[in-house]
Amino acid sequence: MALSRHFLTRRDAVVIIIVLSAFYFVSALYIFPPTPIITSTDIHSNCNETNFNSSSLVSQGSQLPQTQVIAHAPGWTLFRDLYMANGTLYILSSNESSHFPEIRKMISVSMKAEASPENIAAREPTEYQMTFITPDTARRRWGLNNDTAVRVSTVSGNTLLFNDPPQFLAHYYHFVAELLVGTKAFLHGAFSAPFLRSSPHIQRPLYTQSQPSFDRAIFMHSDAKSWRDGPGFNAYFLRAAFPSITVEVSDDWQDRVDLTLENTRAWHFPTAFLADRSSAFRGDACGSRTQRTAAEAWEFMVSKGALDLFGKWWDDVRTAVTRFAGGSVDSEQQEEEVRIVYVSRQGGRRRLIQEDHERLVRELTSLVARKRALDKPWVLDIVEAQRMSKDEQIRLFSKATILLGVHGNGLSHLVLMNPQSTSTVIEIFFPQGFAHDYEWTTRALGMKHYGIWNDTYFTHSNHPRVNYPEGFQGEAIPAYAPTIVKLIENRLEGRM
User: Fold this and answer.
1) Helices 390-397 and 315-324: angle between axes, nearest 10 degrees
2) 8 Å CB contact between 64 and 268
3) What is the phi/psi pair of residue 7, to 5°?
């Protein structure tokens, strides 16, 4: 039989190519199945997506990313890939614990702090607060084997974990000038180019120089009421500065604990920043020198060249709160105007001798009148902050050049001042008394601080030791007006 010649048409060739391609693709999937491995890049790309059709559970057969400490100072630790089960924070690592900071400098037992040796010892952490877990143990415990249902859920995004007890949270100074200032200083520095250059251990490109926004703040041991101060500034400041942040409190944290009580499930935090007050006191900057927890965060980042010394790293927070209150953030206008704000405490405890207060008001008024007669734009505000609305206080203190007052919470508004060449906080103490609270915060935010003992003054270079003599909290604090007024005039005229 003679064979006839037959040529493929173009249509036949296209069909054959499609069939062969499909066969190759299916065969490749069968022979080389993909291994689903979670990386920090995957986690962070998923954080910004909302997909209600997908589960937040880690995929069956996945490898959990191991924990990495990005940056650490006593009381302040930035983690990549931290885990929690049954209330315990887990560092997942195949390395020995010696590769990580001391646990006692990262976390504590959250309880009321007292100065007794018994209380100090009771706040030392145990394995319940934080411990290490190997990948193999985590796989067996939390069901990551191929034949076991997975039980690790990712809390997407970036999380602030505040381990402090309510004792200090419910105070405007400690909440804003310690907790938030420390948090901002540490995170601003940790996501800066100088810190990145000084930290070769950080995996690239998993780490960027742009500071991320944080999705939630979890007050692990404080209920909804206990992290708020009486006047309401804690909530005001947090919401104004970080309007998108979600707040969880101890009940919410307990929900997560209860759901992992048997330690067969775990929560996974892709990025977690842990702040712990008692741990900060185990560092030198706080525990030995300043008693300010934020000092550990600030000094560490300054040592890395990751923070400026002029308070610019705090600008976006200060600006956000000021704008929220309807205030102006025009720096040029503030440079032209000199505003002295005297916070009077004469209606409460820890106040001046009444005669000294009255003379101080007279001499401040006279000083400003003399300067205005010379066409200098000097302004004096004598205020009782408790008589003002929160918006009014924010707007006023954000314009202050000189902030003057007796040691106390009214000086906490210094966090709103715009650091300029003459920006100054003048704090009146009972003679021989001193505390670092406002002195340290003023310097950290790039301004000058002076302490007053009646007719003498001191500054950082010669400040005294911390001391709370009898009369420190009293109602008869002396203040020699001529000394204070002369100090203000010399400071504003550039003579000191």
Assistant:
1) 130
2) yes
3) -110, 140
Query: Can you tell me the distance from the alpha carbon of 74 to that of 298, in angstroms, rounded to the nearest whole number?
Result: 11
The pLDDT value given to residue 9:
56
pLDDT score recorded for residue 29: 30
pLDDT for 52? 28
CA distance 312 to 393: 22
- How many Cα atoms occupy the beta-carbon half-sphere of 62 within 13 Å? 20
Q: Give the pLDDT of residue 446.
A: 97
Please tell me the distance from the alpha carbon of residue 159 to that of residue 269, in angstroms, as a whole number. Answer: 7
DSSP for residue 57? B
CA–CA dist 69, 273 (Å, integer): 10
CA 434, 438, 234, 246 torsion-angle sign: negative
Q: Which of 287, 323, 298 is nearest to 418 (CA)?
A: 323
Q: What one-character DSSP code corresponds to residue 64?
A: P
DSSP secondary structure letter of residue 347: T
pLDDT at 62: 66
Each residue's pLDDT tens digit, 416-470: 999 999 999 999 999 999 999 999 999 999 999 999 999 999 999 899 999 999 9
- Taking only the tens place, the pLDDT of each residue in 253-311 is 999 999 999 889 999 999 999 999 999 999 999 999 999 999 999 999 999 999 999 99
Per DSSP, helices labelled H in 101-160 are: 117-122, 135-142
Residue 372: half-sphere exposure toward Cβ, Cα within 13 Å: 12
Q: Rounded CA gap, 151 and 266, in Å?
A: 7
- Low-confidence stretches of the chain (pLDDT < 50) are 1-8, 14-55, 60, 204-207
160, 275 in Cβ contact below 8 A? Answer: yes
C-beta of residue 411 within 8 angstroms of C-beta of residue 405: yes
Q: Closest Cα to residue 107, out of 265, 274, 248, 241?
A: 274
User: 8 is written with which tokens?
Assistant: 């493929």
Report which of 457, 364, 453 is spatially closest to residue 402, judged by C-alpha positions. 364
pTM: 0.85
Closest to 407 measured CA to CA, from 355, 345, 347, 329: 345
Please measure the distance between the N-terminal and C-terminal CA atoms of the chain and give it in whole angstroms. 116
Q: Cα separation of 368 and 371, whole Å?
A: 5
